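User: Structure with alpha-D-galactopyranose, tokens only please.
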Amino acid sequence: MKLPDLATDLARQFQRIYGRPPRWFVAAPGRVNVIGEHTDYNDGFVLPMAIERYCVMAADISRTSQNISIHDEQVGEKAVIDISKPVEKGNPKWSNYVRGVIAGFQNRGVKIPALDVLMLSTVPLGGGLSSSAALEVCTATLLESATGKKMDPVEKALLCQKAEHEFAGVPCGIMDQFISVMGKSNHLLLLDCRTRETKLVPVNDPSVELLIANTNVRHELGSGEYAVRRSQCEEAAKILGVASLRDATAEMLEQKKSAMSDIVFRRARHVIGENERTVSAAEGVRNSNWPTVGQLMYASHRSLRDDYEVSCKELDAVVEIAESIGEQGGVYGCRMTGGGFGGCAVALVKSNAIDAISKKLATEYRQKTGIEAAIFVSRPAAGATVLKS
Ligand code: GLA
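Assistant:
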């Protein structure tokens, strides 16, 4: 559903539930990372785009309570958050993303009003498309409107990342929150995670699209393994004598090979290679050099599968099918995207072959795994938006 239609729908429901129209209406998108995986927490480069899937919130000042009450339309659940004292973790579990952001505003001394909020998200949950970052950034955008405290985009993204660290216990990097805040339609965002410098990379060629295939699997080991990868990278950086793997080169790594375990060596090799691939891919996108970008995506996938070991058989199946379709059939490249262990793959495809590719991917994926994939195309979308203030 397009954003204006979502807004109309949610406004109608708000009116039905609360008997008045919402005063504020905000949205924040999910994301797909085109390339640059597991590089953000190594001070490296990432190249994500916001997608046309959103967390949306309609809200008004509460007339009956001193709380922020958030009603999740889809799951039919309500989170009631007492804002008269410092907000802490609580239930339901998803409310922690919201709680963390409210706490971030409280810590800055911002006075927050009691609110009635109705929310809806079209970002698939747990699909590696940053549904949690969309929820955090949407909350922050609503609080900006409701409190009048407009934040600098970098500060806003960092506040949301902190919410994820402290309230959801996920030691994520900065990519997801940055792109949900700063995405721009028809552009990818090349983000230098060390300097936080961003460069918009236009995607103006109508002959290509990004296709997202959700494997519809999520392996529980995901979050624990994420933290393990982080510490392996830190170990590698320490042995190499650099502040982070961003500063390491393939030659430096080769020289110290005997000083580290094979696992740590391979983790570092992925990160070093991935940073180079990401910068090259951004250049490729700028020049509409799609075959090159596609090959870099395949190389990224192999590295994530073999060296970083964060893929899974379902993601590998999608990439293998994509590769078998090949450029002849309209696929330039494909790779897993996001943290891994399930979730989505992203493919760079020719626009005129989307239907045939989607059909073949769905059929062969079902044959190989017995699972239905969810496949869709998204143009690069705008970041957090205030639809009504
Ligand atoms: C998750 C994290 C991001 C990033 C990716 C891997 O999505 O939230 O910060 O580390 O994994 O690239």
